[in-house]
Amino acid sequence: MNEHAIQNAIRNALAGRCLLFRANTGTAWTGNKVDRLPGGRVLIHDARPFSTGLPPGFADTFGLVPLVITADMVGQTIGQFLAGEIKTPTGRLSDKQEAFLRAIKNNGGRAAVWRSPADALATVLGAL
Fold this sequence. Notes:
This protein is an alpha+beta fold. It is built from 3 helices and 8 strands; from the N terminus they run H-E-E-E-E-E-E-E-H-E-H. The chain has helices at residues 3-14, 95-106, 117-124; strands at 19-22, 27-30, 33-36, 42-45, 48-51, 61-68, 77-86, 110-114. Helix 1 (3-14) crosses helix 3.
């Protein structure tokens, strides 16, 4: 199964358990004027690249896990930041991806590599 298929399976498995978003990252082109040409081609005048603005290493998915505060903390439900980096069974993290997941954990969030819906569910339930 490729990363896209794993991600879709994870998003379906977590439906209703957390608020989860897919992070689209990458570089695209913008410019002052766009002309549509025959055959579906596009001409961008004064073209320049732009990135999505997410930092390098940002996780494939992110969101919030509902967290019930204990009675001595008023019993409110709050959202805890959640990040999952989707990988195939043999996929490897980049140094920046490792640093991002570590930063989330070091700041009180839940973050892990997800190779299956079971991995993602374990993170949401607080087991990872």
